[in-house]
């Protein structure tokens, strides 16, 4: 299991979770943040600081938001718009900086 970020994060981008993450595995796209599943150590530090309660264990994502589990993984596994290669597991969000792109699903998402 790993933590994932759901629909409540879209267009919020508070970044409290990014600051709290001890392993620097939360990356910022254009409209929301994403947790790199291979880098996340499941410590849960990000979950209580999220002001919109968007962070959940992948097995406990709220009903109707199941696609966000796939999108969190897809953000790292497939090339994003404007990028030639997938992000993969870069080893830390701070070194990469803001990505400025989202998966097609999140880019088109309307709540």
Provide a compact summary of the structure:
With 111 residues, the chain is an alpha+beta fold.
How would you characterize this protein structure?
There is one protein chain. It is built from four helices and four strands. With 111 residues, it is α+β, with helices and mostly antiparallel strands. The strands form two sheets. The chain has a two-stranded antiparallel sheet. A two-stranded antiparallel sheet has the order 2-3. The longest helix is centred in the middle third of the chain and has 11 residues.
Helical percentage: 10-25%
The low-confidence runs, each spanning 5 or more residues with pLDDT under 50, are none
Note the run of SSEs as H and E.
Answer: EHEEEHHH
What is the end-to-end distance?
A: 26 Å
Overall mean pLDDT stands at 95
Rg is 12 Å
Q: Which structural class matches the secondary elements?
A: alpha+beta
Bin the strand percentage.
5-15%
Please give the order of strands in the largest beta sheet.
1-4
Name the assembly state.
single chain
The number of E-state strands comes to 4
Major β-sheet annotation: 2 strands, antiparallel
Sequence-ordered SSE layout with sheet pairings:
Elements lengths: L2 E3 L10 H5 L5 E3 L4 E3 L19 E3 L9 H11 L15 H4 L7 H5 L3
């Amino acid at each position: 299991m790993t933590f994932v970020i759901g629909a409540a994060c879209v267009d919020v981008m508070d970044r409290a979770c990014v600051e709290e993450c001890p392993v620097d595995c939360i990356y910022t796209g254009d409209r929301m943040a994403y947790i790199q599943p291979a880098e996340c150590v499941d410590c849960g530090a990000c979950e209580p600081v999220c002001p919109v309660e968007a962070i959940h264990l992948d097995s406990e994502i709220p009903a109707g938001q199941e696609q966000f589990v796939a999108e969190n993984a897809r953000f790292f596994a497939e090339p994003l718009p404007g990028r030639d290669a997938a992000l993969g597991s870069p080893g830390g969000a701070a070194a990469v900086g803001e990505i400025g792109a989202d998966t097609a699903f999140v880019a088109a998402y309307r709540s």
